[in-house]
Specification:
The complex is a heterodimer of chains A (about 775) and B (about 260).
Chain A (H helix, E strand, L loop, with lengths): L13 H5 L15 E7 L5 E7 L1 H4 L4 E6 L32 E2 L5 E7 L2 H10 L1 E6 L6 H5 L13 E8 L1 H9 L3 E9 L11 E7 L4 E6 L4 H13 L6 E4 L15 H13 L3 E4 L2 H7 L6 E9 L5 E13 L26 E10 L13 H19 L3 H8 L8 E2 L5 E2 L4 H11 L5 H10 L3 E10 L7 H7 L7 E7 L5 E5 L8 H13 L6 E4 L17 H28 L6 E4 L2 E4 L5 E3 H9 L14 E6 L8 E11 L4 E12 L6 H21 L31 E5 L16 H18 L10 H13 L1
Parallel strand pairs in A: 1-12, 10-11, 14-15, 20-21, 27-28
Antiparallel strand pairs in A: 1-5, 2-4, 2-6, 3-5, 7-15, 8-13, 9-10, 9-12, 13-14, 16-17, 18-26, 19-20, 19-25, 22-23, 23-24, 26-27
Helix pairs in contact in A: 9-18, 14-15, 17-18
Chain B lengths: L4 E4 L3 H10 L3 E4 L5 H6 L7 E4 L9 E4 L2 E5 L4 H6 L1 H4 L3 H8 L4 H6 L2 H7 L6 H7 L3 E4 L3 E3 H4 E3 L2 E2 L7 E7 L3 E8 L6 E10 L2 E7 L6 E2 L1 H9 L3 H5 L16 H19 L1
The chains are: A alpha+beta (about 775), B alpha+beta (about 260).
Chain lengths: ~775, ~260
């Protein structure tokens, strides 16, 4: 069976997941561990008159009760990004509230007890006296004249940022024949990983060292942030383990106050302290995604040539800055506004706003779904207004394949792609030509059928570290790998990427198997432990294969190079005459060869070995810093049928053609695309993260109110991939994890508005919203 | 959850006696509502009296032309029973539309109606089919059983033992589910038995209610168009993040019309 690059290898990690043998943070029981429960604010905005812990401290089994006062002097939760390095209002985020709470779910106290139930009992006995302040829940309320301020600032603004040439854009609008304008809401989402967040903090007094087990997508980043910026623990005294993790979708990137609290408390109480979120706690305290209000204008000629794009966005930061909160609506958003088009002038202005809601950070796609949504909505709307077929309008404005690499007016340079080819293939797969007939047939059944397109491009494979630094990231964005060949030729790969559902243990093993010509089973992939992995920036932004996989390739190159030296000695040939192929080192032009396993053994049993020139061992590390982002692109076409009496939308067809560059495991790619589309459909149609506008209470704090897509909400997808390899990484790969979530919302809303003949329906396009839009359209 | 005393009842009379001896007992049927409520610490009963072992409360039988469903019969059993589906397909369909497979295999008819969730499906069946609720001490007519949101005519300690459904000439249930919970945003059971027509609505209001205007119109002409023009007032209907009162009122008419069409 082929297990190399391009083979649909079954995921090797699934056996342990499906047989209940995964090792998630909550599965870990440390000797003597105590249990923590956090007392969370029940109000959205209040000064704390007092937090009385006396009764709680006296409850059975209670080990300790801590409040913000106990953590005075412990640094707050740091933010990892300021657009362009600032200026940005960056108010402190204490680990436990110090005098004030700013959203429902903000942490007020930490109760540690022998058992979880005892900790829960005692948490109820903590008496918090709230002196309530009016909450500002919406961005409109937060920016109103005289609005209460969350922080010790003049107002609730966080930053004001812009990208693109404003003058050139104004000039483009001045000469436009037609301007299409839309006011859009990109709705707030709760990421809802199936595994809730959890953390165990442990202090070892014998070595004065700390261990944090946590549900993180990037354990080294947590070690750096918490060690260097919060608790003052140097790297060699702090181990962060992120074992099996059940989904993240971005919500497990940030550094959270709970991680700090358990690590700090582990030393205070002298025993491991464990916390696992309940589902409602996840809704309240995981970072949320999206939450933009946008006005977008597209300037065109009468025959549909795009001249300019102007975007004004308000982005909700929530109550505090999460680790990458300010990155998402700035550089991960404004830089993608050219989309697939040659629009020559683009200007985007964004203001970040504080509100009394949970902090907002990355969620699958992170900025790019927001950019794609507004762009593909305004393009589709322009097509309708101009009376031009939406496929034809896109075709007229595509960046031609021969224009790549292409410098956009918003900083980024696209590397490779064939956008028109992708759309043409998708339109053919979707039988666009037959749509009119299908629409008529649906009408005869009393159904309104619509079709919607979304072309998208994303910047993945984050990121060249020098660019990251210029735009304001307080970190590099390379990746690290170690390839350890064992004496008998099996291989352990230590990667700084982190798998929390992506299947790295399979994909990365395929790469190693392919490059070294050794059996897939002989390769194990190790990740998620700062004591085992040299370094790592983690997994997000579809970067694992493009950056982490490239680091592995670099290390493999070093292994092969050293292997050639050893083989040259063994075969008594010059190093430059040695070829390596299919696991054999061969003297070029001869039948003299030696297998990879023999070379591995000789590296560790160096009896016949060039010891003067070469160290024993076969163990190589590499860091890889990408030369550019990668730019996956594609086209999704959605067909829906709307029941006009109830407003219910049924998705009847979904066709996607994606260009992810080279593909290592097509089965895993299919799964990622399926999941991504489901994610995007959830946002567009089902998922409604709603706060009460007055009280700031989360109204969708459980799965009975927050609707996650289920199998029967989705059709069978028809997905295909095309392949223009990424020219600047060794595998030619681009990334696939976010594509569906980026493309789906625009495709679906374009289809619904096409079906019911209205300009726009806000997400989530629930039956009631669709029905109400139909009612008002009929009233006009 | 908070601590409570757990008792496993050996008979209906034992269950009722145990309840009488407790400060604040709750019966545990399928536990589809009670267990989450306990886990959320939203209830703190002194005693939980588990009815799971009571064979006398389980099963479906036909008695005097009515389908009698024991209180501890699960939704899946009702949905899969030919003794239900053959005479009253609307009742089997309704049971099949409840929750998900896990809920249908745990949840019971007695638990559902005693809980009287305003969005539960079974109240529409009980009222819409004119059923009779049997308890350990009496029988209660459908129209008297549900009194308000999460309120019924049951006295403290009174235990539902069975529900008997008369067989209608025709009936159908149409439900517009909450996409997240799959409870009813609006569910309408329509039935005709001789000259009597019942239209019962769940999900829309604080408790299941009948729509007399529709019933009168259908008594004259049992056809979809008879109710197409009849709407209920949005005043007092439920309002939440899923649906406004106006939308619920609109759905009552649509679901009623579709139920009449489905009843044939």
């Amino acid at each position: 069976m082929d297990t190399g690059i391009g083979a649909a290898v079954t995921r090797k990690e699934d056996f342990r997941f499906l047989t209940g043998q995964g090792n998630y943070t909550d599965d870990i029981a440390r000797p003597g561990q105590a249990h923590a429960v956090f007392v969370r604010s029940v109000v959205a905005h209040a000064n704390l008159r007092s937090v009385d812990t006396e009764a709680a401290s006296a409850m059975p089994g209670v080990v300790a009760v801590f409040t913000g006062d106990d953590l005075e002097g412990v640094g707050g939760v740091p933010c990892g990004f300021a657009p362009d390095g600032g200026p940005m209002n960056e108010p402190p985020r204490p680990v436990l509230a110090q005098g004030k709470v700013r959203f429902v779910g903000d942490m007020v106290a930490m109760v540690i007890a022998e058992t979880l139930e005892q900790a829960r009992d005692a948490a109820e006995a903590v008496d918090v006296d709230y002196n309530e302040i009016p909450a500002v829940v919406s961005m409109e309320a937060a920016q109103a004249e005289g609005a209460p301020t969350l922080h010790d600032l003049d107002d609730n603004s966080c930053f004001s940022w812009g990208i693109g040439d404003a003058e050139a854009t104004d000039a483009a609008f001045a000469r436009a024949d037609h301007v299409t304008t839309l006011e859009l809401v990109n709705n707030r989402k709760c990421p809802n990983a199936i595994e809730p967040r959890a953390a165990i903090g442990e202090y070892d007094s014998a070595h004065d060292s700390y261990t944090l087990y946590t549900t993180s997508q990037n354990p080294h980043v947590i070690r750096l942030l918490m060690g260097a910026f919060v608790l003052g623990i140097p790297e060699h005294k702090l181990r962060v383990v992120s074992p099996d993790v059940g989904g993240g979708f971005g919500s497990k990137i940030p550094h959270y106050p709970e991680e700090i609290a358990v690590t700090w408390a582990g030393k205070q109480v002298g025993r491991p302290v464990k916390w696992t979120a309940e589902r409602t706690e996840s809704f309240l305290s995981d970072t949320h995604g999206r939450d933009h209000i946008t006005r977008v204008e597209l300037a065109c000629t009468s025959d549909g040539e795009f001249l300019g794009l102007r975007v004004h966005t308000q982005a909700n930061m929530g109550a505090y800055l999460s680790t990458f909160g300010p990155l998402i609506p700035t550089y991960l958003y404004g830089t993608l506004l050219a989309g697939l088009y040659t629009t020559p002038a683009i200007r985007c202005d964004v203001v970040g706003v504080f509100t009394n809601t949970a902090p907002v950070d990355a969620e699958r796609g992170a900025g790019r779904p927001e950019a794609t949504f507004l762009l593909e909505r305004v393009v589709e709307t322009a097509a309708r207004e101009l009376g031009i077929d939406p496929v034809e309008l896109r075709r007229r404005n595509f960046i031609p394949a021969d224009a790549l690499p292409y410098q956009t007016p918003v900083i980024v340079q696209y590397d490779s792609g064939n956008y028109e080819g992708v759309l043409d293939r998708a339109a053919e797969a979707a039988d666009y030509a037959g749509f009119a007939r299908r629409r008529e047939e649906a009408r005869s059944r009393g159904r309104l059928r619509g079709i919607g397109f979304a072309g998208y491009i994303e910047a993945c494979g984050m990121a060249p570290s020098n660019i990251a630094g210029i735009i304001g990231a307080r970190a590099g964005l390379f990746e690290a790998a170690q390839v350890r060949v064992h004496p008998t030729g099996s291989v352990s790969v230590y990667t700084g990427s982190h798998s929390h559902g992506q299947g790295h243990e399979t994909t990365f093993a395929q790469i190693v198997s392919d490059r070294l010509g050794i059996p897939f089973e002989n390769v194990d992939v190790v990740h998620g432990d700062t004591d085992q992995i040299p370094f790592g920036m983690g997994t997000y932004g579809s970067r694992s294969l493009a950056v982490g996989g490239s680091a592995i390739c670099k290390a493999l190159d070093k292994i092969i190079a050293k292997g050639k030296k050893i083989a040259a000695h063994a075969l008594e040939a010059g190093e430059s005459d040695i070829d390596f192929e299919s696991g054999e080192f061969r003297v070029r032009g001869t039948d003299k060869s030696v297998g990879f396993g023999d070379i591995a053994l000789s590296a560790y049993v160096p009896h016949n070995y060039p010891l003067e020139e070469l160290e024993p061992g076969l163990d190589e590390g590499a860091f890889y810093d990408p030369a550019n982002f990668t730019f996956p692109a594609g086209c999704h076409i959605c067909e829906v049928e709307v029941d006009p009496e109830t407003g219910t939308t049924q998705i009847v067809n979904w066709n996607a053609v994606d260009d992810f560059g080279k593909i290592v495991n097509p089965m895993i790619v299919d799964g990622q695309v399926h999941g991504g589309i489901a994610h995007g459909v959830g946002q567009a149609m089902l998922e409604n993260c709603a706060y009460d506008e007055e009280s700031g209470q989360l109204l969708s704090g459980s799965l009975t109110d927050y609707c996650i897509p289920r199998a029967d909400d989705l059709p069978s997808f028809h997905i295909e991939t095309t392949e223009t390899p990424c020219p600047h990484n060794p595998l030619g790969v681009k990334g696939c994890g976010e594509a569906g979530a980026i493309a789906a919302p625009a495709a679906l809303i374009n289809a619904i508005t096409d079906a019911i003949g209205v300009a726009h329906v806000d997400m989530p396009a629930t039956p009631e919203k669709v029905w109400a839009a139909l009612q008002s359209a009929q009233g006009e | 959850m908070y601590e409570f005393n757990y008792r496993r009842a050996s008979s209906v009379s034992d269950a009722v006696a145990s309840s009488g001896q407790s400060d604040d007992a709750s019966y545990l049927a399928g536990g589809m509502t009670l267990i989450p409520v306990l886990k959320f610490r939203l209830a703190s009963p002194s005693d939980i009296i588990d009815l799971a072992g009571l064979g006398e409360l389980k099963g479906i039988r036909t008695e005097n032309g009515a389908v009698v469903v024991g209180a501890m019969t699960t939704h899946a059993e009702v949905a899969g029973s030919s003794e239900v589906r053959q005479p009253i397909p609307a009742l089997a369909d309704l049971a099949e539309s409840i929750g998900d497979p896990q809920v249908r295999n745990r949840g019971t008819i007695g638990g559902s109606i005693a809980n009287a969730d305003p969005a539960a499906d079974y109240p529409a069946a009980v009222v819409g089919l004119g059923a009779t609720v049997h308890t350990n001490s009496r029988t209660i007519g459908a129209d008297d059983f549900f009194t308000d949101m999460f309120e019924t005519a049951l006295e403290p300690g009174e235990l539902v033992t069975a529900v008997s459904f008369p067989v209608p000439d025709r009936a159908a249930y149409m439900k517009f589910p909450n996409p997240a919970s799959r409870y009813a945003i609006v569910g309408v059971m329509v039935s005709q038995s001789g000259e009597e027509v019942r239209v019962a609505v769940t999900g829309a209001g604080g408790s299941v209610f009948r729509v007399p205007e529709m019933e009168q119109a259908l008594a004259v002409n049992f056809a979809p168009e008879a109710v197409a023009g009849i709407s209920v007032s949005a005043d007092g209907l439920n309002e939440d993040i899923h649906a406004s009162p106006e939308y619920r009122a609109h759905l009552v008419t649509v679901m009623a019309r579709r139920a009449v069409a489905a009843a044939g």
